[in-house]
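Students often ask why we bother encoding 3D structure as a string. The short answer is that it lets us treat folding as translation between two languages. Here is a chain of 117 residues written in the first language.
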Amino acid sequence: MNRRGAENAERRELGEEMRQLTGAVIGAAIEVHRLLGPGFLESVYHKALEVEFQMRGISYKSKPPVAVNYKGYQVGEGELDFLISDVLIVELKAVDKLAPIHEAQVISYLKMTNQYL
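And here it is in the second language, the structure alphabet:
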């Protein structure tokens, strides 16, 4: 296999791993919402999702800090809701409707962690 073929195979493998991981996380979130339903504070869903991740054996970090850098200087710090297996950001929202600021927040987190959408 040539170099390009090996790179493509690696991308497909990573893509499949990410699909499995996101599927597991979405399944956990659906289970939490199915049992709790709407109307709770975000903190309640956060704790319930931690329990569900633990029960499903999903590796996660809860509320990990992330540095905000500007021209090589750390100028602040953000906080993710969850970082799953060091590759997947989960941002919780307990709102009726997502607003543009919620999307901007996630885009900022992706930039801060050098992750992709």
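Translate back mentally: Residues 3-113 form one domain. Keep this in mind for the problem set.
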